[in-house]
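Exercise 3.2. Students should predict the tertiary structure of the chain below and write it as structure tokens, then compare their answer with the key that follows.

Predict this chain's 3D structure.
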Amino acid sequence: MEHYEPPYTISNRMLELVSDISEKVGKISSHKELESKPHLRRNNRIRSIHSSLKIEANSLSLSEVRDVINGHLVLGDQKEIQEVKNAYEAYKRIAEIDPTSISELKKIHGIMTYRTVNESGIFRKGEEGVFSGDECIFVAPPPHMVNELMKDLLSWVKKNEGVVHPLIMSAVFHYEFAFIHPFADGNGRMARLWHTVFLYRWRNIFEYIPLESQIERFQAEYYDAIAKSHVNGNSDIFIEFMLDMINQILEELISQIHKSNAETSEYVKRMLEVMEFDVPYTSNAIMAALGLKSKETLRKNYINPAVELGVIRMTLPDKPNSKNQRYIKQ
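Answer key:
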């Protein structure tokens, strides 16, 4: 198909959302807020991976996903644990991915599905459909059409880079990719990762913005937007939905940053200075590092506020007073 053009129409609502998103991105970027808060970046990356996998029925909790990424022993389904490792490896490559390359797409799919699916790193050979739970939203094009459809889509992307706004292009690509469904498994994970890659190439703060967690919260609406766009024969509804999701997650991130700035006391800052990332500390070890003698002072002024802010976590959150409790800087 020559000069393929995905069907969509820019609406006033889309333009309003693009403007709102651009303003929010400017606020975050101008103050270099994420650069100065590595714990937020790391937490958001873990949230992205957990949510994207949860959408695909991975049952590991957020804390278990964090433990897998940190190299700790997790008792769980080995396939699900491997999916976390794979996603982490794939997300680490966001900054170097060329989203217009078919070979790159297959390569990253091979990483994302390593040891978990039979057809890893290759386009599907069988019929597939898009499902929301047990309900088939639509049947994807036959496998013999996949290669040409993906070539057409990526040719459109190359031709329109710098012409179509990245916020629009990423959403159009996401929908068209979901419709083509080029792989036997892992299409949702790849579509969401590629969406983030496009956004990163526009503004690099998107590397650490957990768009996937917002989609996971509105998972039914996500699949509904895909289904309605399919019925309408264009991606308009899906574009507006994704722009709204991005706008909401940026609003949440700005609030998260403001809360961190406003509430991080000098006590908490001092404690964070003596802790290394991802190292488990006993309360006694923290007391020694701070030169404190009272556990009550440590708990009231340091640990409790830090846990509430999310800058440290307990290894045993269900047993806060356990003698085996450890605290980890995030």
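Discussion points: The chain has a mean pLDDT of 93. The longest strand covers residues 135-139.
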